[in-house]
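Our preliminary data section would be incomplete without showing what the modeling component actually yields. Below, a chain of 72 amino acids is followed by its predicted structure, encoded as tokens that our downstream tools consume directly.
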Amino acid sequence: MLNNPKLILLLCLTLGLAPFFPEPHIWGKLKWIAGGAEGMVLKDWFDVLLHGAPFILLIRIVLLKLGAFNKK
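Predicted structure:
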């Protein structure tokens, strides 16, 4: 399951970006962190982890694929 790129991409497009309007939730949180993260509480950090986890898994898969490609 953690090595299925199609499933991970689906998670990125759904859980990772939800809610979509007015902007993807993870994007708003990342802007908040880049702005100094003032006022963020534990709930907000957990939210970043929850919405960011699919992207971390996607990056992991890409790096594994690149590593396997370089070995050939």
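The two ends are 25 Å apart (CA to CA). The mean pLDDT is 90. Preliminary results of this kind motivate Aim 1 of the renewal.
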